[in-house]
Amino acid sequence: MNLLVKTAEKMSQGPITISGIRQPPTRAFMDDMTITAKSVPEGRWMLEDLERLISWSRMKFKPTKSRSLVLKKGKVQDRFRFRINGELIPTVTEQPVKSLCKWFRSSLSDKESVTEMRQQCDDWMKAVDKSGLPGKYKAWIYQHGVLPRLLWPLLV
Q1: Phi, psi of 34 (to 5 degrees)
Q2: pLDDT tens digit string along 89-148?
Q3: What is the pTM of this model?
Q4: β-pair partners for 119
Q5: Angle CA 77–40–97, to nearest 5
Q6: What CA–CA distance (Å, rounded) separates 43 from 127?
Q7: Which residues pair with 76 in a beta bridge?
Q8: Residue boundaries of the structural domains of the chain
Q9: What is the C-alpha separation between 97 and 66, in angstroms, rounded?
Q10: What sign has the CA pseudo-torsion 72, 107, 149, 154?
């Protein structure tokens, strides 16, 4: 998979951050891939190249499991649509996506995720409290069950 990702990287240099650091145009982890481009046409060219390379390797993308997000001056733009194998890729506005326990929504804000995490924490703590177990077992459940579930989203 790394060979395909590195080959597709040659078409784009990736966007530049405010601090002047150039981001890589493609990022891959396991079976997930993220493409960042400076412009919509450049993103389309990268998708076409990746589609050609993936089909050459006898694999295929699943457009329904993919998402697209176009930002222009910090605002989400829904008028640009991308295609793979002739199928439309849904936008983040239509269908938010969860990656590594983090939700990516069109609001570009984590407020909803924070409230969801607080609600989950309350539910977990109430369930442990109502379990009827002695205190040392409740502490064990908190240490080995609740705490790792809370720390992972914070680490990501």
Answers
A1: -120, 130
A2: 998 888 888 877 778 888 888 888 889 889 999 999 999 999 999 999 999 999 999 999
A3: 0.65
A4: none
A5: 55
A6: 47
A7: 71
A8: 2-93, 111-155
A9: 8
A10: positive
Amino acid of residue 47: L
Give the whole-angstrom CA distance, residue 66 versus residue 84.
10
DSSP string for residues in 36-53: --SSHHHHHHHHHHHHHH
Residue in the structure block whose two tokens are 């733009």 = 77
The whole-number average pLDDT for the span 17-45 is 79
Distance CA(26)–CA(68), nearest Å, equals 14
Query: Residue 42 carries which side chain, given as an amino acid letter?
Result: E
Q: How confident is the model at residue 49 (pLDDT cuts 50, 70, 90)?
A: confident
Q: How far is Cα 141 from Cα 5, in angstroms, rounded to an integer?
A: 42
Q: Are 92 and 104 in contact (CB under 8 A)?
A: yes
The pLDDT assigned to 137 comes to 94
DSSP state of 64: G
Residue with tokens 């809370």: 150
Cα separation, 150 vs 120, whole angstroms: 9
In angstroms, the CA 26 to CA 30 distance is 13
Q: What is the pLDDT of residues 9-28, one digit of tens each?
A: 666 677 777 888 877 777 77
